[in-house]
Design a protein that fits this description.
Elements (H helix, E strand, L loop, with lengths): L2 H23 L2 E6 L2 E2 L3 E3 L5 E2 L1 H13 L2 E6 L7 H5 L4 E2 L7 H6 E3 L4 E3 L1 E6 L15 E4 L3 H10 L6 E4 L2 H9 L5 E5 H10 L5 E4 L7 E3 L2 E3 L3 H16 L2 H10 L2
Parallel strand pairs: 1-5, 1-6, 10-11, 10-12
Antiparallel strand pairs: 2-3, 3-4, 6-15, 7-15, 8-14, 9-12, 9-13
Bound molecules: arginine (ARG).
Arginine binds next to loops.
Protein name: Basic amino acid ABC transporter substrate-binding protein
Keywords: Signal
Pfam family, one: SBP_bac_3
Length: 250
């Protein structure tokens, strides 16, 4: 091979490298969220995704120089978008569980939650085990769905599954179910914003602590590291606390 040819090949490789690193710099990460989960992720009247999770991930992205784009994505099938490559991250108040960890990777926790029961104001329910034979509404495939399955059995006909948590709560208001089991923050938010809803909330000491994490495709170490570094940075410099206080008070 003559030196002219070599030079040409070398410059082609160089151009390729340049192009590649530019492509990386310009990468916008596609973020899946089921935006029917206020105050964590919901749509404002301009149809933009807003909420606690959004503010947290935006702050993380700013710290670690990532470009992100939120895409409202149905909860059912949301995790599959990682393995297909349609989305790079899921931030959707996703509880980190051992089963989920088998099919995707999670960031360090960014929020602590637990289940909470919502019932009508006049309901006699006072604890979780009272739901044993009652009709209970949950969002399909959530940790609320999991806890009620443990109480009633997987195939219980009294577990009524809904596409979103607000739909389950609507059904409770309409009397179609006796109770809803869902994440505390969402139930509290709903009751606070719907004073006419005639619902009350029941906390049960047997519910375990849950931790929300940001999910990425299994094995995407580089992205996970970037997220965790950003998360640690916003926790260290007070940004996280500011966001927390904005949504949940002190
Ligand atoms: N934390 C619960 C879970 O991981 C519920 C999350 C539902 N999130 C949502 N945006 N709908 O199962």
């Amino acid at each position: 091979m003559n030196s002219k040819k070599l030079g040409l090949i070398a410059s082609m490789i160089f151009a390729g490298l340049l192009f590649n690193s530019n492509a990386n710099a310009a990468k916008t990460y596609q973020v899946a969220t089921d935006a029917a989960y206020a105050p964590f992720e919901s749509l404002n009247n301009k149809k933009e995704v807003v909420g606690f999770s959004v503010d947290v991930l935006e702050a993380i992205a700013k710290k670690s120089g990532m470009k992100i784009k939120f895409i409202n994505t149905p909860w059912e099938g949301i995790f599959a978008t990682l393995s297909t490559g349609d989305r790079d991250m899921v931030i959707s108040s996703v509880t980190i569980t051992p089963e989920r960890k088998q099919s995707m990777d999670f960031s360090d926790p960014y929020f602590e939650a637990k289940q909470l029961i919502a019932v009508g104001k006049n309901s006699k329910v006072s604890k979780f085990t009272d739901l044993k034979t009652l009709k209970v509404g949950v969002q399909t495939g959530t940790t609320g769905d999991e806890v009620i399955q443990k109480l009633q059995g997987k195939t219980s006909p009294n577990i009524k599954r809904f596409e979103s948590t607000p739909l389950a709560i609507k059904e409770l208001e309409n009397g179609g179910v006796d109770a809803v089991v869902a994440d505390n923050g969402v139930v509290v938010n709903f009751v606070a914003n719907n004073p006419n809803s005639k619902l009350k909330m029941i906390d049960d000491a047997t519910f375990a602590k849950e931790y929300y994490g940001i999910a990425v495709k299994k094995g995407n170490k580089a992205l996970l590291e970037q997220i965790n570094k950003g998360l640690a940075a916003i926790k260290a410099d007070g940004t996280y606390d500011k966001i927390y206080n904005k949504y949940f008070g002190k």
